[in-house]
Design goal:
This protein is an alpha+beta fold. The protein folds into 4 domains: 147 residues, 2-Layer Sandwich (Beta-Lactamase); 102 residues, Beta-Lactamase, CATH 3.30.450.20; 101 residues, Signal transduction histidine kinase, dimerisation/phosphotransfer (DHp) domain (Helix Hairpins), CATH 1.10.287.130; 148 residues, 2-Layer Sandwich (Heat Shock Protein 90), CATH 3.30.565.10. Helix content is 48%, strand content 23%. The strands form 4 sheets. Strands 6-5-9-8-7 form a 5-stranded antiparallel sheet. A 5-stranded mixed sheet has the order 11-13-14-16-15, covered by helices on one side. A hairpin with a 5-residue loop joins strand 7 and strand 8. Helix 13 crosses helix 16, helix 14 runs parallel beside helix 15 and helix 15 packs antiparallel against helix 16. It is elongated, with a radius of gyration of 49 Å. The N and C termini lie far apart (114 Å).
């Protein structure tokens, strides 16, 4: 029947959008909970106690209950808005009534308005209570707790046989009067064997002094005391226990002690295991911290690469558009104006040719970088005079330097300096560096190329008096897609030239370094090993 009542309360919860439904029984000026649906019983304890104080012959003012602070406290805990109270069943000749409490999310008036929807459910609940309670006699209608607790001696004896903990009673001298049957498999004593033994008799000597002090504290303070000790079994096994003792007071005097002892040997084992695991946990946390830091660095690196790639795409697109715009613009002019003078056509064709070459060079640079990254570039090395190679590159860039009125100076030794290298690839690297130096140097500036013949190495220095590189950018200028930020400067560039240079120098087992000062120019230093071939 309780299951039917529970289902009915759940239906009421659903119909009225209630947080909880409480079925209360008022009998002989006492209140008790019949059933609760939707929440734990404990939250209503204070409310039931307050209602019991209002109850007189099972009649009380319902509105008075709603205004109780404890009722408002329950509403707050349930996060409900109002409380709907209804008497659902009464047995007048027994001064017994049953009340339904609905803690609802909406205003109480809305529930009353929908009364037609809940009335049939309340009628069903009333019939269920009538069947469950009204058919019982006066003796059978006693609260269940009374029926149970009145037989406490029998229940206590059963408890002693069921408990896995040691439940014991000591007389005023500290000797065992009674102990739960668990002592037979924990301490290897039968209940008869343990009776009459002193508590200290089963405590090893090294723990007796502290245990005696704890027992004296109980006797002196007459309050509950918790302490830890070790009990020795009949077979000599020492077992750690947590013991809680309470004095038994008779006629104002301590006549004995009652206590519960919990075997904590398994807990001690767990603590030892935890102590062993603690260093591993510390190490694991440290490794996790390292991995998190590494992951953060990788994530930051990927984000930076994405940003740089985005800038690269933007820059390369701009570099492509500029020559294409010139090619398309001048071509359209030639096509659209058949009367264009031959001299102007020739000039336009020259511009188109130069812009086409510039576009082709840009595409080749991107493809070269892609091939280097993919490992598709093979070096065709041969013995060569580095002085002649650099001289050719300088002469190639001289017209561009003269156009900007920049002094391009080449200082070198008259000796031959032989290295093993791919002349074409190394020449492209030097061309990129010298071209950059001219590009980033203002008119009337200087670009100087120096070759120093060292003991085992040859050193090539390319220095300019240009705009320089900010100190913060120096560590990154050889990174892929990196382009130095120069606010207010409209110097074209893709940011891939120096990457190609670094790759070529590395492939030839050389070294490259850079020194620069913002506004005072830049110096690149490249070193290669000289070739010392033994003559046959």
């Amino acid at each position: 029947m309780i299951e039917l009542i529970d289902n009915t309360l759940k239906i009421l919860n659903a119909v009225t959008d209630s947080k909880a439904a409480l079925l209360l029984r008022c009998r002989n000026s006492k209140s008790s909970i019949v059933h609760v649906s939707g929440f734990e019983t404990g939250i209503f304890t204070d409310l039931i106690n307050a209602i019991s104080m209002l109850t007189v012959d099972c009649e009380f003012n319902l509105s008075e209950v709603e205004n109780l602070p404890v009722c408002k406290s329950v509403l707050k805990k349930l996060n409900a808005e109002s409380c709907f109270i209804q008497n659902v069943f009464s047995v007048k000749d027994q001064d017994e009534s049953f009340y339904l409490f609905l803690f609802i999310n909406d205003q109480k008036e809305n529930v009353i308005t929908a009364n037609s929807a809940i009335t049939p459910i309340l009628n069903i609940l009333s019939e269920q209570l009538k069947k469950y309670f009204s058919t019982k006699s006066e003796t059978t209608q006693k609260p269940d707790e009374d029926l149970i607790l009145n037989n406490w001696k029998d229940n206590f004896t059963k408890l002693l046989s069921l408990s896995e903990d040691l439940i014991f009673f000591l007389d005023r001298d500290g000797c065992f009067l009674k102990m739960s049957e668990s002592c037979s498999f924990i301490l290897d004593y039968s209940v008869a064997e343990i009776r009459g033994k002193h508590l200290l008799d089963i405590i090893p000597s090294e723990y007796q002094s502290k245990a005696a002090d704890d027992i004296n504290e109980i006797l002196q303070t007459e309050r509950v005391v918790k302490f830890s000790t070790v009990l020795e079994s009949n077979l000599g096994k020492q077992i750690p226990f947590n013991i809680t003792c309470h004095p038994i007071i008779t006629e104002g005097k301590v006549s004995g002690l009652m206590g519960i002892g919990t075997d904590v040997s398994r807990l001690k084992e767990y603590e030892e295991e935890l102590l062993k695991l603690k260093p591993k946990l510390v190490e694991a946390r440290r490794l996790i911290s390292i991995e998190r830091a590494r992951l953060w660095q990788q994530t930051s690196l990927l984000e930076e690469l994405d940003r740089i790639k985005g800038e690269f795409v933007s820059n390369i697109s701009h570099e492509f558009r500029t020559p294409l715009a010139s090619i398309i613009g001048f071509s359209e002019t030639i096509v659209s104006d058949p009367d264009l003078p031959e001299e102007m056509k020739s000039e336009f064709n020259h511009v188109i040719l130069n812009e086409g070459k510039r576009l082709a060079k840009l595409i080749n640079d991107v493809l070269d970088l892609s091939n280097i990254e993919g490992g598709k570039v093979a070096l065709n090395k041969s013995s060569m005079n580095i002085v002649d190679l650099v001289n050719q590159v300088v002469d190639t860039n001289r017209p561009e330097a003269e156009k900007k009125m920049i002094a391009l100076i080449f200082e070198h030794t008259n000796e031959k300096i032989i290295i093993d290298a791919d002349g074409e690839k190394i020449g492209q690297a030097f061309d990129a560096l010298i071209n950059n130096a001219i590009k980033f140097t203002n008119g009337n500036g200087r670009v100087k190329v120096i070759i120093n013949n060292l003991f085992k190495e040859v050193e090539i220095i390319i220095s300019d008096t240009g705009v320089g590189i900010p100190e913060k950018d120096l560590p990154y200028i050889f990174q892929k897609f990196y382009r130095v930020s120069r606010p207010g400067t409209e110097i074209p560039g893709t940011g891939i030239g120096l990457v190609f240079v670094k790759q070529m120098v590395d492939m030839h087992k050389g070294l490259i370094s850079v020194q620069s000062e913002l506004g005072n120019g830049t110096t690149f230093i490249i070193k290669f090993l000289k070739s010392f071939k033994v003559k046959s």
